[in-house]
Fold this sequence. Notes:
- By secondary structure, the chain is of the alpha/beta class.
- The chain is built from 10 helices and 14 strands.
- It has helices at 43-50, 72-78, 94-104, 113-120, 136-148, 166-181, 216-220, 235-242, 268-277, 292-304, and strands at residues 3-14, 17-28, 32-36, 58-63, 66-67, 79-82, 154-157, 185-190, 201-206, 209-214, 227-231, 248-254, 257-262, 284-287.
- It has a 6-stranded mixed sheet with strand order 6-7-8-3-9-10, with helices on both faces. Strands 2-1-4-5 form a 4-stranded antiparallel sheet, covered by helices on one side. A 4-stranded antiparallel sheet has the order 12-13-11-14, covered by helices on one side.
- β7, α6 and β8 (185-190) form a beta-alpha-beta unit.
- α3 packs parallel to α5.
- It starts with a strand and ends with a helix.
- The site of adenosine-5'-diphosphate has 11 residues, from β2 and α1.
Amino acid sequence: MGNAIEIDNISKRYGKIKALDKVSFSVPEGMLYGLIGPDGAGKSTLYNILTTLQRPDSGKATVAGHDVIKGRKKIRTEVGYMPERFSLYPDLTVKENLEFFASLFGVQVSENYDMIAPVMTQLEKFPNRRASALSGGMKQKLALGCALIHRPKVLLLDEPTTGVDAISRSEFWTMLRSLKESGITILVSTSYMDEAALCEEVALIYNGKIVENGTPSELTAHLGENLYNASADQMYPLLEAVRELPGVLNSYTFGATLHLVTDATFDVASACDKLSASGLDNVKVYLAKGNIEDLFIRFCNIEDHE
Ligand code: ADP
Protein backbone atom coordinates (compact mmCIF):
# COMPACT_ATOMS: atom_id res chain seq x y z
CA MET A 1 0.00 0.00 0.00
CA GLY A 2 1.15 3.53 -0.75
CA ASN A 3 0.85 6.74 1.10
CA ALA A 4 -2.48 8.57 1.19
CA ILE A 5 -0.74 11.81 2.16
CA GLU A 6 2.82 12.86 1.36
CA ILE A 7 4.22 16.11 2.64
CA ASP A 8 7.68 17.07 1.42
CA ASN A 9 9.51 20.14 2.75
CA ILE A 10 6.46 22.38 2.96
CA SER A 11 7.10 25.94 4.19
CA LYS A 12 4.66 28.80 4.64
CA ARG A 13 5.17 32.29 6.05
CA TYR A 14 2.77 35.00 7.11
CA GLY A 15 5.01 38.06 6.96
CA LYS A 16 7.67 37.47 9.58
CA ILE A 17 5.94 34.44 11.08
CA LYS A 18 7.19 31.07 9.85
CA ALA A 19 3.95 29.11 10.24
CA LEU A 20 5.46 26.00 8.61
CA ASP A 21 9.17 25.38 8.33
CA LYS A 22 10.20 22.53 5.99
CA VAL A 23 7.50 20.14 7.17
CA SER A 24 7.80 16.56 5.88
CA PHE A 25 5.94 13.39 6.82
CA SER A 26 3.69 10.86 5.16
CA VAL A 27 0.53 9.03 6.13
CA PRO A 28 0.16 5.44 4.85
CA GLU A 29 -3.18 4.45 3.32
CA GLY A 30 -5.75 3.35 5.87
CA MET A 31 -3.99 4.84 8.90
CA LEU A 32 -5.42 6.91 11.75
CA TYR A 33 -2.64 9.50 12.00
CA GLY A 34 -2.42 12.35 14.51
CA LEU A 35 -0.90 15.79 14.07
CA ILE A 36 -0.26 16.83 17.65
CA GLY A 37 0.78 20.29 18.73
CA PRO A 38 -0.11 23.28 20.88
CA ASP A 39 -2.03 26.33 19.63
CA GLY A 40 -0.10 28.28 17.03
CA ALA A 41 2.08 25.28 16.07
CA GLY A 42 1.01 25.42 12.41
CA LYS A 43 -1.65 22.71 12.25
CA SER A 44 -4.41 24.73 10.55
CA THR A 45 -1.96 26.19 8.06
CA LEU A 46 -0.96 22.67 7.04
CA TYR A 47 -4.64 21.69 6.68
CA ASN A 48 -5.28 24.74 4.52
CA ILE A 49 -2.48 23.62 2.23
CA LEU A 50 -3.60 19.98 2.12
CA THR A 51 -7.16 21.03 1.29
CA THR A 52 -5.86 23.43 -1.43
CA LEU A 53 -7.25 26.52 0.33
CA GLN A 54 -3.75 28.00 0.57
CA ARG A 55 -0.61 27.51 -1.47
CA PRO A 56 2.68 26.65 0.18
CA ASP A 57 5.64 29.04 -0.35
CA SER A 58 7.80 26.02 -1.15
CA GLY A 59 7.72 22.25 -0.98
CA LYS A 60 5.34 19.64 -2.36
CA ALA A 61 2.40 17.68 -1.05
CA THR A 62 0.00 15.10 -2.40
CA VAL A 63 -3.32 13.92 -0.98
CA ALA A 64 -4.96 10.76 -2.32
CA GLY A 65 -2.25 10.79 -5.01
CA HIS A 66 -3.04 14.30 -6.24
CA ASP A 67 -0.70 17.27 -6.07
CA VAL A 68 -2.08 20.08 -3.88
CA ILE A 69 -1.51 22.63 -6.64
CA LYS A 70 -2.04 20.74 -9.90
CA GLY A 71 -4.70 18.36 -8.59
CA ARG A 72 -6.91 20.83 -6.73
CA LYS A 73 -10.18 19.71 -8.27
CA LYS A 74 -9.56 16.03 -7.65
CA ILE A 75 -8.51 16.68 -4.07
CA ARG A 76 -11.72 18.54 -3.41
CA THR A 77 -13.82 15.59 -4.54
CA GLU A 78 -11.76 12.80 -3.00
CA VAL A 79 -11.04 14.35 0.35
CA GLY A 80 -13.35 15.06 3.28
CA TYR A 81 -12.48 18.07 5.40
CA MET A 82 -13.72 19.22 8.75
CA PRO A 83 -12.31 22.67 9.48
CA GLU A 84 -11.43 23.84 12.97
CA ARG A 85 -14.65 25.80 13.35
CA PHE A 86 -17.23 23.41 11.97
CA SER A 87 -18.47 24.48 8.58
CA LEU A 88 -22.14 23.84 9.34
CA TYR A 89 -24.84 26.31 8.35
CA PRO A 90 -26.45 27.27 11.67
CA ASP A 91 -29.84 28.20 10.17
CA LEU A 92 -30.16 24.95 8.24
CA THR A 93 -31.52 21.84 9.93
CA VAL A 94 -29.60 18.59 10.43
CA LYS A 95 -31.19 17.14 7.28
CA GLU A 96 -30.67 20.30 5.23
CA ASN A 97 -26.99 20.54 6.18
CA LEU A 98 -26.42 16.98 4.99
CA GLU A 99 -28.35 17.62 1.79
CA PHE A 100 -26.40 20.81 1.16
CA PHE A 101 -23.00 19.14 1.52
CA ALA A 102 -24.16 16.18 -0.60
CA SER A 103 -25.29 18.56 -3.34
CA LEU A 104 -21.86 20.25 -3.42
CA PHE A 105 -20.44 16.91 -4.49
CA GLY A 106 -23.33 15.89 -6.71
CA VAL A 107 -24.40 12.94 -4.56
CA GLN A 108 -27.64 11.99 -2.80
CA VAL A 109 -27.66 11.63 0.98
CA SER A 110 -29.50 8.31 0.61
CA GLU A 111 -26.88 6.69 -1.67
CA ASN A 112 -24.07 7.23 0.85
CA TYR A 113 -26.02 6.99 4.07
CA ASP A 114 -24.32 3.71 5.03
CA MET A 115 -21.07 5.66 5.26
CA ILE A 116 -22.40 8.11 7.83
CA ALA A 117 -24.94 5.91 9.63
CA PRO A 118 -22.67 5.22 12.64
CA VAL A 119 -22.17 8.97 13.07
CA MET A 120 -25.86 9.77 12.75
CA THR A 121 -27.38 7.41 15.34
CA GLN A 122 -28.34 10.16 17.82
CA LEU A 123 -28.87 12.89 15.24
CA GLU A 124 -31.42 10.77 13.38
CA LYS A 125 -33.88 11.51 16.18
CA PHE A 126 -34.14 15.20 15.28
CA PRO A 127 -33.59 15.72 11.56
CA ASN A 128 -35.47 19.02 11.63
CA ARG A 129 -33.49 20.71 14.38
CA ARG A 130 -31.39 23.67 13.30
CA ALA A 131 -27.65 23.16 13.58
CA SER A 132 -27.43 26.24 15.84
CA ALA A 133 -29.64 24.45 18.42
CA LEU A 134 -27.40 21.36 18.67
CA SER A 135 -24.97 20.71 21.53
CA GLY A 136 -21.23 20.96 20.82
CA GLY A 137 -20.91 17.18 20.61
CA MET A 138 -23.87 16.89 18.21
CA LYS A 139 -22.54 19.69 15.99
CA GLN A 140 -19.25 17.85 15.84
CA LYS A 141 -20.99 14.64 14.75
CA LEU A 142 -23.06 16.41 12.12
CA ALA A 143 -19.94 18.15 10.79
CA LEU A 144 -18.26 14.74 10.53
CA GLY A 145 -21.32 13.38 8.70
CA CYS A 146 -21.17 16.32 6.25
CA ALA A 147 -17.43 15.73 5.67
CA LEU A 148 -18.10 12.06 4.87
CA ILE A 149 -21.25 12.31 2.75
CA HIS A 150 -19.38 12.12 -0.57
CA ARG A 151 -17.49 8.96 0.49
CA PRO A 152 -13.99 10.47 0.57
CA LYS A 153 -10.84 8.33 0.52
CA VAL A 154 -9.02 10.63 2.91
CA LEU A 155 -10.51 12.49 5.86
CA LEU A 156 -8.78 15.64 7.14
CA LEU A 157 -9.97 16.73 10.57
CA ASP A 158 -8.61 19.95 12.09
CA GLU A 159 -8.99 19.93 15.87
CA PRO A 160 -12.40 18.25 15.77
CA THR A 161 -12.57 17.77 19.54
CA THR A 162 -11.65 21.30 20.63
CA GLY A 163 -14.27 22.67 22.99
CA VAL A 164 -16.44 19.55 23.20
CA ASP A 165 -17.08 17.70 26.45
CA ALA A 166 -15.04 14.68 27.54
CA ILE A 167 -17.76 12.11 26.73
CA SER A 168 -18.29 13.48 23.22
CA ARG A 169 -14.53 13.49 22.72
CA SER A 170 -14.28 9.85 23.64
CA GLU A 171 -17.28 8.89 21.46
CA PHE A 172 -15.72 10.81 18.60
CA TRP A 173 -12.49 8.82 18.81
CA THR A 174 -14.46 5.57 18.86
CA MET A 175 -16.12 6.71 15.62
CA LEU A 176 -12.76 7.56 14.06
CA ARG A 177 -11.47 4.09 14.84
CA SER A 178 -14.48 2.44 13.20
CA LEU A 179 -14.14 4.71 10.15
CA LYS A 180 -10.51 3.70 9.93
CA GLU A 181 -11.60 0.05 10.00
CA SER A 182 -13.73 0.74 6.93
CA GLY A 183 -10.51 1.65 5.06
CA ILE A 184 -10.53 5.45 5.08
CA THR A 185 -7.28 7.30 5.84
CA ILE A 186 -7.60 9.90 8.59
CA LEU A 187 -5.30 12.79 9.49
CA VAL A 188 -6.60 14.37 12.70
CA SER A 189 -5.04 17.28 14.54
CA THR A 190 -5.33 18.01 18.24
CA SER A 191 -3.81 20.12 20.96
CA TYR A 192 -5.00 17.60 23.59
CA MET A 193 -1.87 15.61 24.27
CA ASP A 194 -3.81 12.65 25.70
CA GLU A 195 -5.43 12.10 22.30
CA ALA A 196 -2.02 11.27 20.80
CA ALA A 197 -2.22 7.81 22.39
CA LEU A 198 -5.42 7.09 20.41
CA CYS A 199 -3.62 7.41 17.05
CA GLU A 200 -1.64 4.67 15.32
CA GLU A 201 1.13 7.10 14.46
CA VAL A 202 1.67 10.76 15.22
CA ALA A 203 3.73 13.71 14.07
CA LEU A 204 4.51 16.25 16.78
CA ILE A 205 4.53 19.81 15.50
CA TYR A 206 5.92 22.81 17.36
CA ASN A 207 6.74 26.28 16.05
CA GLY A 208 6.05 25.16 12.48
CA LYS A 209 8.48 22.23 12.66
CA ILE A 210 7.89 18.49 12.94
CA VAL A 211 9.91 17.60 16.00
CA GLU A 212 9.25 13.84 16.10
CA ASN A 213 7.11 11.25 14.40
CA GLY A 214 6.35 7.58 14.95
CA THR A 215 4.03 5.45 17.07
CA PRO A 216 3.07 7.01 20.41
CA SER A 217 4.87 4.26 22.32
CA GLU A 218 8.04 4.64 20.21
CA LEU A 219 8.10 8.33 20.97
CA THR A 220 7.71 7.95 24.70
CA ALA A 221 9.81 4.76 25.08
CA HIS A 222 12.95 6.52 26.22
CA LEU A 223 11.35 9.25 28.25
CA GLY A 224 11.06 7.24 31.43
CA GLU A 225 14.80 6.84 32.00
CA ASN A 226 15.33 10.25 33.55
CA LEU A 227 11.82 11.13 34.58
CA TYR A 228 10.42 10.89 38.11
CA ASN A 229 7.11 11.53 39.82
CA ALA A 230 7.29 13.43 43.10
CA SER A 231 4.51 14.11 45.58
CA ALA A 232 4.11 15.31 49.16
CA ASP A 233 1.29 16.69 51.30
CA GLN A 234 2.53 20.23 50.63
CA MET A 235 2.76 20.49 46.84
CA TYR A 236 3.83 24.11 46.38
CA PRO A 237 6.72 23.94 48.87
CA LEU A 238 7.64 20.64 47.17
CA LEU A 239 7.91 22.37 43.80
CA GLU A 240 10.31 24.90 45.33
CA ALA A 241 12.31 22.24 47.18
CA VAL A 242 12.82 19.87 44.22
CA ARG A 243 14.45 22.67 42.25
CA GLU A 244 17.29 22.68 44.79
CA LEU A 245 17.96 18.94 44.49
CA PRO A 246 21.20 17.82 42.79
CA GLY A 247 20.58 16.27 39.37
CA VAL A 248 17.16 17.89 38.73
CA LEU A 249 17.17 19.64 35.35
CA ASN A 250 13.49 20.61 35.21
CA SER A 251 10.30 20.19 37.20
CA TYR A 252 6.66 20.88 36.47
CA THR A 253 3.23 19.98 37.80
CA PHE A 254 1.73 16.93 36.20
CA GLY A 255 -1.81 16.12 37.28
CA ALA A 256 -1.73 15.79 41.04
CA THR A 257 2.05 15.21 41.16
CA LEU A 258 5.25 16.78 39.87
CA HIS A 259 7.44 15.46 37.11
CA LEU A 260 11.19 15.82 37.56
CA VAL A 261 13.55 15.63 34.61
CA THR A 262 16.90 14.49 35.94
CA ASP A 263 20.44 13.65 34.87
CA ALA A 264 22.50 10.60 35.80
CA THR A 265 23.66 12.14 39.10
CA PHE A 266 20.11 12.17 40.55
CA ASP A 267 19.71 9.79 43.48
CA VAL A 268 16.17 8.89 44.59
CA ALA A 269 16.99 7.86 48.15
CA SER A 270 18.96 10.98 48.97
CA ALA A 271 16.34 13.14 47.24
CA CYS A 272 13.62 11.67 49.49
CA ASP A 273 15.78 12.23 52.60
CA LYS A 274 16.49 15.84 51.69
CA LEU A 275 12.83 16.61 50.95
CA SER A 276 11.64 15.00 54.20
CA ALA A 277 14.35 16.82 56.16
CA SER A 278 13.09 20.11 54.72
CA GLY A 279 9.78 19.56 56.56
CA LEU A 280 7.64 17.99 53.83
CA ASP A 281 5.32 15.12 54.81
CA ASN A 282 4.54 11.93 52.90
CA VAL A 283 7.28 12.46 50.36
CA LYS A 284 7.22 10.02 47.44
CA VAL A 285 9.64 9.96 44.51
CA TYR A 286 9.48 7.19 41.91
CA LEU A 287 10.18 6.60 38.22
CA ALA A 288 7.46 8.07 36.00
CA LYS A 289 6.02 6.78 32.77
CA GLY A 290 6.45 9.65 30.37
CA ASN A 291 3.87 10.63 27.80
CA ILE A 292 3.58 12.99 24.85
CA GLU A 293 3.06 15.99 27.11
CA ASP A 294 6.47 15.38 28.67
CA LEU A 295 7.99 15.29 25.20
CA PHE A 296 6.48 18.68 24.41
CA ILE A 297 7.70 20.19 27.65
CA ARG A 298 11.18 19.05 26.66
CA PHE A 299 10.92 20.62 23.23
CA CYS A 300 9.54 23.86 24.59
CA ASN A 301 12.41 24.09 27.07
CA ILE A 302 14.95 23.45 24.38
CA GLU A 303 13.50 26.36 22.42
CA ASP A 304 13.41 28.63 25.46
CA HIS A 305 17.09 28.09 26.20
CA GLU A 306 18.26 28.79 22.68
P1 ADP B 1 -2.51 25.96 14.91
O1 ADP B 1 -3.60 25.49 13.99
O2 ADP B 1 -1.54 24.89 15.29
O3 ADP B 1 -3.06 26.68 16.12
P2 ADP B 1 -1.95 27.95 12.86
O4 ADP B 1 -1.58 27.25 11.60
O5 ADP B 1 -3.33 28.49 12.98
O6 ADP B 1 -1.60 27.01 14.11
O7 ADP B 1 -0.94 29.16 13.08
C1 ADP B 1 0.48 29.03 12.94
C2 ADP B 1 1.11 30.41 13.12
O8 ADP B 1 0.75 31.24 12.03
C3 ADP B 1 0.66 31.14 14.39
O9 ADP B 1 1.75 31.89 14.86
C4 ADP B 1 -0.44 32.03 13.88
O10 ADP B 1 -0.56 33.18 14.70
C5 ADP B 1 0.05 32.39 12.48
N1 ADP B 1 -1.05 32.65 11.54
C6 ADP B 1 -2.02 31.77 11.18
N2 ADP B 1 -2.84 32.31 10.23
C7 ADP B 1 -2.37 33.57 10.00
C8 ADP B 1 -2.77 34.63 9.12
N3 ADP B 1 -3.80 34.50 8.30
N4 ADP B 1 -2.05 35.75 9.16
C9 ADP B 1 -0.97 35.90 9.98
N5 ADP B 1 -0.54 34.92 10.82
C10 ADP B 1 -1.23 33.78 10.84
